[in-house]
Amino acid sequence: MNKIFLITGPAGVGKSTISKLIAQNLEKSVLIEGDDVYHLVVGGYISPWKEGNHLKFFWENCKSLIKNSIKNGYDVVFNYILDNKQVEDIKKSFLNCEIKFVCLMVDETTIVKRDKLRSEDCQMGERALVLLNEMRGHNFNKNNILDTSNLSAEETYIDIMRSNRYLIW
Asked: Which of 38, 72, 95, 161 is the most buried (most CB within 10 A)?
């Protein structure tokens, strides 16, 4: 049975780092960085939080990439800022897969510190705190939330891989 790992959380929480660790340690895997898919649109690009964005097109592309990867025998690690509706949509679209959904969270001090460690062009500043508070408002199942404030990337990876609490079938 193919596996899908859905990794979400606010900007700067470590989604890319953890997703890469997971993908590197799976036998046959694909890493889909949601930001990369969203940025495929160049002409007519609109930020995802603005009206007139291309999120519908983005989600069609993401589901198509996941489907094609699964069809060809790859496990999928997908990261992006998700809400409950999007998680449920992916769950319904891939009923024959084992899906782990993890929302990485941290406290305010940690998100600010981690944001400053990013390259200057990737730093979010105040927006990192805004996204942290928005993610708190999504009311995800507490079993799917992992506070990584005091965890290393390796400890976070091990927890995700070993724990069944993140399964969402």
From this structure: 38
Q: Is this model's pTM higher than 0.85 or not?
A: yes
pLDDT tens for each residue of 108-145: 999 888 888 888 888 888 888 888 888 888 889 999 99
Q: State the SS3 of the chain.
A: CCEEEEEECCCCCCHHHHHHHHHHCCCCEEEEEHHHHHCCCCCCCCCCCCCCCCHHHHHHHHHHHHHHHHHCCCEEEEECCCCHHHHHHHHHHCCCCEEEEEEEECCHHHHHHHHHHCCHHHCCCHHHHHHHHHHHCCCCCHHHEEECCCCCHHHHHHHHHHCCCCECC
Spatial distance between the Cα atoms of 117 and 66, rounded to a whole number of angstroms: 31
